[in-house]
Amino acid sequence: MNEKNIVLNNVEAAKEFVKAASECDFDIDVYFNRIALDAKSLLGILSLDLRSKLRVCYSGENAGFNTVLAKYAA
């Protein structure tokens, strides 16, 4: 299981993150405090405080997704 911390500063960043996550064939979870969400759910991600640090846990590898994670690394 891989784990990264990210910050999505705005709606466009959230859209880019969800799009990259949706292209992956493995599960990706986003954790904020006690909330756990599917990273492929735009409404779920937008319901979070986007200025806060989010923990992303995933079990596969995808070059495009890794690029987006690096772009928004906290």
Automatic annotation (TrEMBL):
Q: From the UniProt annotation, give the residues forming the signal peptide.
A: none
List residues of the HPr domain: 13-52
Task: List all membrane-crossing ranges.
Answer: none
The record's annotation in InterPro entries points to:
HPr-like, HPr-like_sf
Identify one Pfam family in the record.
PTS-HPr
Q: What is this protein called?
A: HPr family phosphocarrier protein
UniProt organism field? Coprococcus intestinihominis
